[in-house]
Specification:
There is one protein chain. By secondary structure, the protein is of the alpha/beta class. 37% of the residues lie in helices and 15% in strands. Helix 3 runs antiparallel to helix 4, helix 12 runs parallel beside helix 14 (291-297) and helix 15 runs parallel beside helix 16 (376-386). The longest helix is centred in the first third of the chain and has 23 residues, at 142-164. 37% of the residues are buried.
Length: 466
């Protein structure tokens, strides 16, 4: 607030109230509303510059690059940007010459329902009215598709030029050091969340490529050229090849003081079929090289830690070893929240990790995790006795095994079968799921829901017996 007051003080005499009053009011307005205030007078223009550009979103798109450069060169706006979101939406087909789809392939892509919905929501989309509403779905004839395809092709050529000339690296080298108030950077592929945030490429029948090394290098290079102490870094839809020591070393060098890190690895593995299991195993080998624990261990100030692997195929599960993601001996003195997806561990190593952080941990989310030879029942009882949490979610299908002394006769038809498979569910979409009962047990003291006999008899469980 002190910097904001200084930016506005030269013009406070034309306002009926001190600038800090207007700054406080603006904190309750939408950014677009605050920006509109800038049209009123010079004093409100400065106040709008302080409050209307906190979060800047840009794409791999020349007009967005020009906008970002203008923001970085503005004497007030540049100091008040605290979040930068890079929606890459890279449509360049790497390894292809030319780097875009042929007309025939593009026409076939018009059969994909998700792409049709995305294009239909976009204005303009250069598709004649009614063409996207035909039932049954058939390929859109090229005479209706020509204008859309030509604009797609031009967009890919523009992106290819940016990447081949490394214009993104040059831009962020210039821009990031000027954003002196920057605290958070988010990198997305620009497609997976396009329903929420509009992209200039939503009008095309094409899916974005996973986030690659060059785009992240541009971000890290910009940070390394600055004196900015970034607090939060989030990267989604990362290509599995980025699980390497070189990329992680760039994060360590550029973001030593990180308090929050979230890495979501996906990419080619997410789109393959069951016959392509070697790709999944390749990602597992990359994880097993041990680069992730070294990265996380080099960030001692972490409060929030999130590692997601979103490339496990239904029916072909290869959870990633906990010790290859987080060193069991690592300790963060201020760790408040942790989320791990598709991790395989044993009860003792998770218990030891939670014990190390029992004084600070407040939120835990484990999704689609597995215990190789140990029991979820025993682990969760240990966690409940050890931790004082504000939030806990155990979601998805969790594999484990009954340990000695546990009764599994009601859980499996074969009494010699010691496998546990808990369908915890997904509380943000399910009417009822076991995850909700576990959370209530931890936080509200309701009865423990981890009773194999009662679990299968829950009235809302799809697998309940009559």
């Amino acid at each position: 607030m002190e910097n904001n007051d200084q930016d506005c003080q030269d013009d406070h005499q034309v306002l009926p109230f001190p600038p800090e009053i207007f700054l406080g009011v603006c904190s309750y307005l939408e950014p677009s509303e605050v920006r509109s205030l800038r049209l009123c007078c010079k004093a409100l223009a400065n106040i709008g510059a302080c409050c209307g550009f906190r979060c800047i979103v840009f794409h791999l798109h020349k007009p967005d690059f020009d906008k970002l450069l203008s923001i970085a060169r503005h004497p007030i706006i540049s100091k008040n940007v605290d979040t930068l979101i890079y929606e890459i939406a890279n449509l360049v087909q790497m390894g292809r010459n030319p780097p875009y789809y042929s007309p025939e392939h593009y026409e076939r892509l018009t059969m994909i329902r998700s792409l049709r919905r995305k294009v239909k929501r976009s204005e303009p989309n250069w598709i004649p009215d009614g063409v996207l509403d035909t039932i049954p779905i058939t390929p859109i004839p090229f005479e209706h598709l020509q204008e859309n395809y030509n604009r797609y092709k031009n967009a890919v050529k523009e992106q290819h030029h940016i990447l081949s000339t490394k214009a993104d690296l040059d831009l962020l080298e210039d821009v990031i050091p000027k954003l002196t108030g920057l605290k958070k950077i988010i990198v997305n592929d620009g497609y997976s969340i396009s329903q929420i945030r509009q992209s200039p490429f939503d009008a095309f029948f094409a899916q974005a490529e996973p986030v690659n090394m060059q785009s992240l290098q541009a971000i890290m290079h910009g940070l390394s050229c600055s004196k900015i102490q970034l607090h939060s870094f989030e990267a989604n839809q990362l290509h599995p090849s980025l699980i390497n020591a070189l990329f992680f070393a760039q994060i360590t060098t550029s973001c030593k003081g990180l308090k929050s890190i979230s890495l979501d690895f996906t990419g080619e593995d997410a789109y393959i079929n069951r016959d392509d299991a070697p790709f999944i195993l390749n990602t597992l080998q990359l994880v097993n090289h041990g680069a992730l624990p070294k990265l996380l261990g080099s960030l001692p100030s972490l409060k929030h830690l999130c590692i997601i692997f979103d490339n496990v195929i239904r029916g072909l599960v290869h959870p990633y070893p906990f010790h290859s993601v987080v060193s069991p001996k690592s300790r963060w003195r201020n760790l408040r929240e942790i989320r791990l997806d598709r991790i395989q561990a044993e009860r003792p190593e998770l218990s030891a990790f939670f014990e190390l952080h029992r004084l600070t941990l407040e939120r835990i989310h484990l999704h689609e995790c597995a215990l190789a030879t140990t029991s979820w029942i025993k682990l969760l009882w240990q966690m409940k006795r050890t931790l004082k949490l504000k939030e806990i979610w155990i979601t998805g299908d969790a594999l484990g095994r009954f340990e000695e002394g546990e009764d599994c006769t009601h859980f499996n038809q074969n009494p010699d079968d010691t496998i546990q498979c808990w369908a915890f569910g997904w509380p943000w979409s399910d009417r009822w799921c076991l995850a909700m009962d576990v959370a209530n047990w931890f936080l509200l003291g309701t009865p423990c829901p981890l009773n194999p006999a009662e679990y299968w008899m829950h009235p809302d469980n799809d697998d309940a017996t009559e």
